[in-house]
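I am writing to request your help with a piece of structural work I have in hand. The matter concerns a single protein, recorded as an amino acid sequence and a row of backbone structure tokens. Could you please explain, in whatever detail you think fit, how the structure tokens follow from the sequence? Thank you for your consideration; the sequence and its tokens are set out here:
>
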Amino acid sequence: MSKIFQSFQMSYVFRHMKRSEALEEVAYSKLCHSFGHLPKPPISCKVTFSINGDQHLVQASIVTGKGPDLYCHAASRNMYEAIDQLNSKILQQLEKNKYEPQRKGRQPLEGSSSAAAESEDNFQSIESKNTL
């Protein structure tokens, strides 16, 4: 299993079942795809696989340095389907909580001269109101 993120801890817990490297690799590859949508790599991720009767359950708890911490769970009759559902739920949470880093100071956006033009227009309109 190749590591995509170097400073990233991923742990797996198996309840009521034996450890499976195949499940670990599938979960790692699917979740790393989701982590590509984060502004920075996550600090840690804990994935729990369990079986309850005929239901296969997968839970993931993802701690990010910046942005929202994520928690998802999914259940299915097949463990691989549950991992796919978990991945789609994580992507939904990331889409819902779009994270944009805050800009320091009053710097205009790169490549946009419209922000400077708008501020100049606003200044002129305020100045004209003051002269009236």
Q: What stands out?
A: The mean pLDDT is 77. The first helix runs from residue 21 to 35. The two ends are 72 Å apart (CA to CA). DSSP finds three helices and four strands in the chain.
